[in-house]
Amino acid sequence: MTLMNYKIPESVLVVIHTADLEVLLIERADKPGYWQSVTGSKDSVDELLIETARREVFEETGIRVGTLSLNKEADCGDVPADNLRDWHVSNIYEIYPVWRHRYAPGVTRNTEHVFGLRVPSDISIKLAPREHLNHMWLPYQEAADKCFSPSNAEAILQLPKFIDAS
């Protein structure tokens, strides 16, 4: 008998954006029509949130964060580590019933930590086909309107505040 690996109810939400406030949205493969930013749970309880954010961004978009070479030239698709910012915002929300089976019995709430990632406007996106069907870039207000998750929409609407704080 094998034990089921349950998701840890602590996750990241990464708002990927350009300098001119265009936001990347990705469409869920398991729920077509559900658009969101990059999200994902910690792989282990001791995984640092910044590492969760880096891993999820790479797994879901193909964007590598913080892997600059010594001569300051980025490998194709990379962005500097400094472009990934912890916004020090956390949301606690009720896990949608459709996804509760992924968590241990009785777990109904998740804590989500919000990050922003500034990328060049011409960056290449390579979706994980098992997770996402499509992607689009939208002005931040339109992106917020298209998100199915209220916490994701609110994070996107906060983007100008975090750009100004940089």
TrEMBL record:
The Nudix hydrolase domain, residue ranges = 6-160
MF terms (GO), sorted A to Z: dihydroneopterin triphosphate pyrophosphohydrolase activity
Q: Which UniProt keywords apply?
A: Hydrolase
Tell me which Gene3D superfamilies the record gives. Nucleoside Triphosphate Pyrophosphohydrolase
- Please name the top-level EC class of this enzyme: hydrolase
| Matching InterPro entries | NUDIX_hydrolase-like_dom_sf (IPR015797), NUDIX_hydrolase_dom (IPR000086)
> Short name of one Pfam family for this protein?
NUDIX
Q: Please name the PANTHER family in this protein's record.
A: ADP-RIBOSE PYROPHOSPHATASE, DIHYDRONEOPTERIN TRIPHOSPHATE DIPHOSPHATASE
Q: What is this protein called?
A: Dihydroneopterin triphosphate diphosphatase
Give the species.
Noviherbaspirillum cavernae
